[in-house]
Structure formats: C-alpha cells, structure tokens
Amino acid sequence: MKPMGPIPADFGVRDGALLIGGRTATALVRDAGETPLFVYDFAMIERRIARFRAAFPSIDLHYALKANPFAGLVHRIAPLVDGIDVASMGEARTAIGAGMAAYCLSFAGPGKRDAELEFAIAHGVTINLESVGEAQRALAIAARLGLRPRLAVRVNPDFELRGSGMRMGGGAKPFGIDAERVPELVRSLASEDVEFRGFHIFAGSQSLDPDAIIEAQAAMVALAARLAEQVGVAPSRLNLGGGFGIPYFADDVPLDVERIGAALEAQYRARPAVLANTGFCLELGRWLVGEAGVYLTRVVDRKESGGQTFLIVDGGLHHQLAASGNFGTVVRRNYPLAVAHRFGAEPDEVVTVCGCLCTPLDRLGDQVALPRAEAGDLIAIFLAGAYGASASPSAFLGHGPAPEMLVGTP
Ligand SMILES: *Cc1c(COP(=O)(O)O)cnc(C)c1O
Q1: Which of 13, 131, 216, 327 has the highest Cβ tally under 10 A?
Q2: pLDDT at residue 159 above 90?
C-alpha cells in the first residue's frame, strides 16, 4: 500500500455519499450527462479569497488565469479580485469576456508574438516585458498604433524561491530580464512615451514553506527598491508573483498564509521611501482554485493481474495529467482519491486505479487503500481545480475533453 495525499476538509458527506457544493457526485454526473467530469465548488474559492483579504488587507489580489481558465469560473472570480494575470492573447480574451476591465490585466510570458503585443497595447493591457527585444517590439508596435503602451518589467531576480516545486526565477532563465540589465532598460523606457507600470517578480510555484516565501518576498521588495533607486523612477506597482502551494501528498502541510500576510504587511508598512506610492500585488493561481476542483470518473472494469487488483476508469491523464505524476513532479506520488458513494468509509482493499489510455503512464492511484468499488461506481480525484483540464493533453488518444461544471454558486 502507498499513501495518498490529504482530502480537503471542505467536502461533506450524506448517507455515505461525497457532497460537492452540497450535491452528491451521482446527482452532478446525472446533470452533466456523462463522465468524466470536472466539478469546481465556487464557495470554496470565495472562502479562499476572503481569507486572503483578511490576511493581506493592504495587498491587491490578482488571479493567475492559467491555473484554471474555465469561463464560468473566471466570470465569478473577476468581480472578486483586483486584476487578472494572463499569459496569452487567448487568456486575455477569456478575462475580458468574463468582465474584467482590460486595464486590470497584466500579460506575462516569454515569446509574446507581435499580434499579442498589438492586442495588449490596443486594449490597454499591461505588458510584463520579458526581454529587451520584446520591449523594442512593443515600442515599435505602440508607435505604429499611435498609442501609449502600459509596460512593466519582469525582473529575473538574482535569487530563487527555496524549495518551490517549479523554479521560475534565479540564474539563467527564459523568464524576465536579469536584474542587472533592468536599470538600463527602465531608463530607456523613461525617455519614451510609455506608462511605466513597475516591476513584476515571480520566483517559483507550489511552495509550502512560509519562511521561504517570506524570505523571497522581502528580497523582492529590497530588489525593487534598489532598482527604483538606480533608475530614479518610482514604480506604480510591484507584482510579487504567485506560488502559494497546496498540500497534494501525504505529509504535506497546508501553508500558513496568515503568517505570510503578517510579514508582507509589515514589509509594506516599512517599505523604502522610493516605494512610497507603489501598490503591492500578488497573483495567485493554485492556492485560490486548486482545492476546489474534483475530477469524477467512472469505473469501467475491475481486473486482477499478477496478484494485484486494478480499477480501470473512463478518465485519465488526458484530463488530469498532474494526478498521473507527469506534470512538474519528479517522483510519482498519489493524489487523494475516494469512492464517491462510500466517502469516508474504511478501506476494504488495496487497488491501483488506472485511466483508460493505452500507456503505462496513465495511473491515477498507485496501490491505494479504498472501499471496494465495482464497475459503474464513481471515483473522485481531488485537487483538480488548478492545472487540471487546461494543463492536460486532451487530444491524446481521441477521447476528447471532459465537461466542466461550477457548483456552490447562487
Ligand atoms: C503561473 C504563474 C502564476 C501563478 O502561479 P501559482 O503557483 O499557480 O500561484 C503567477 N504568475 C505568473 C507569471 C505565472 O506564470
């Protein structure tokens, strides 16, 4: 038997059945008409946003859309956050379509094409510049359009976020502009007709270490102050990135966000004079939406092989790649999962849950202890709210994408 990660405490149970947003998995699947299915409980996301607001009263909250771009969900998040961070023109369209003012969008990501820069400039989206070459292209496009672009500089910091699952800054990186090259670029921007929107620094993702995050944020504030001093330009905004993690695996401990909030608020109050008029923001993805999602899939077959029991389900890594261990992890470990109609019941047996794809990579639960499940039963795979549907190869093997559904909304 191998351990599973923790099931978020927000999910209820009625007569032994898993409840998502107060409804049973069976009822949700009946409404959707098919399995597999992604369900997102918006009430959980609202509670996360409220918790952020309480812990970070002086810091703006942006949603990093790539964590979950499902239109229904973005539509509900947009009025509750101060901005949305996008990483493509498609994501910018989704955010604008969800009612977010284009002025409140920022556009990060290496390799923005000319058409994307033009779209951002025409709509007044802030471009987080990832290179000197991108700055030159943006300026040329703005001049051609006769518009004043909103430009921020993404800084590749000279440090990294210790212990994060995915490193996004520090050392040689495709993201951002090395800190020592930033002053020259900002000085050259100051001589152009641009609205300078400040600095963007993103050091890493999926961190569960509050001390490492506090340390990295303090270093970001110090770096931004140093750069602003060097160029003599006060940044209107300092975007401190995302990266708050959620517990996926056995022994992961939930992040003490209140402690991070207290430290960042203290940093903000004591910020250097050059940042006196600088607004701070965080752009969070995973921590806001990750725990709110459940992937529901139905057992198609139950079989024995080599003395082990396999449950074969109608879903797989083509929808929930991360749960198979093939998205950003080195060692495969088990996400939490449950038999939906026997939620919380004592396990009867050890089984391996495999997806329906014809590849040995498609394992959703490896030797996990579960109540007995038969063909036709629903399996719930938790932590499917971030980097799930949109981060999986849904065209692989031709089963097509899974429907997505929002619950917990009035
Ligand atoms: C992905 C990303 C985020 C969000 O990261 P999370 O770990 O989901 O919070 C924030 N900012 C940028 C620039 C990103 O690329």
Answers
A1: 216
A2: no
Phi, psi torsion values for 231, nearest 5 degrees: -95, -15
CATH code for the domain of 217? 3.20.20.10
Q: Which atom of ligand 1 is nearest to the CA of 168?
A: 15
pLDDT at 375: 98
- Give me the residue label for tokens 């939930």: 254
Among 255, 284, 313, where does a domain finish?
284
pLDDT tens column, 263-308: 999 999 999 999 999 999 999 999 999 999 999 999 999 999 999 9
Q: What is the pLDDT of residue 164?
A: 64
Let me know whether 170 and 104 are in one domain.
Answer: yes
Q: Would you state the structure tokens that stand for residue 136, as one six-digit string?
A: 């030159």
In this prediction the pTM is 0.96
Query: How many A from CA of 85 to the centre of ligand 1?
Result: 8
Same domain, 94 and 231: yes
| Structure token pair of residue 229 | 């001093």
Active site residues: 358
Q: What is the CB < 6 Å shell around ligand 1?
A: 64, 66-67, 85, 87, 108, 202, 205-206, 241-244, 283-287
Q: Which two tokens stand for residue 61?
A: 């909250």
Query: By residue range, what is the domain housing residue 359?
Result: 12-40+290-407
The residue to mutate among 164, 175, 202, having the most atoms of ligand 1 within 8 angstroms of its beta carbon, is 202
- Report the 3 state secondary structure along 33-100: CCCCEEEEEHHHHHHHHHHHHHHCCCCEEEEEHHHCCCHHHHHHHHHHCCEEEECCHHHHHHHHHCCC
Has residue 52 been placed in a domain?
A: no
Q: From the CA of 287, give the closest atom in ligand 1.
A: 9
302 near 366, Cβ under 8 Å? no
Q: What is the largest CA-CA distance in the chain?
A: 72
Position 5 in a domain:
no
Task: Quickly count: other Cβ atoms within 10 Å of residue 409's Cβ.
Answer: 15
> Cα–Cα distance between 117 and 130 in angstroms, integer?
12
Q: What is the pLDDT of residue 169?
A: 64
* Atom 10 in ligand 1: residue holding the nearest Cα: 242
Q: Which of 60, 81, 85 to mutate to test the pocket of ligand 1 (most atoms within 8 A of CB)?
A: 85
The ligand 1 atom at the shortest distance from the C-alpha of residue 166 is 7
In-domain check, residue 394: yes
- At 330 the pLDDT is 80
